[in-house]
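Why does residue order matter? Because the sequence determines the fold. Keep that principle in mind as you read this record.
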Amino acid sequence: MRKRASRYSVRSKKIRQQSTSLEKLFEEAHEVSAAFQGWVSKWNPVGRVEQGKVKSCERAIQKTVRSYHRDASCLTDVVRCTVVVESVSEVLEWVRRVRGMSV
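Structure:
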């Protein structure tokens, strides 16, 4: 029986994706991006959400090579968005709510 690989990369100090294939990561990113954007927009407690684009393939390859020793499973920021707030108190409120959701 094969030993299951850890989801944590000691070398890059990152949680790993289940896939090591950039192609598969991008397929999954495009599949979930709209749902993620919608979830963040509905959930966001303060400020406004600016929808983000899926990270470019070129940038993902650069980051994988330069930062993660060619380990594509460490690439975790392919789907993203931006939350814009007006004040430090809104930042603190946002962080408080995110922490409340965390496991």
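The helical segments are 22-43, 57-67, 88-101.
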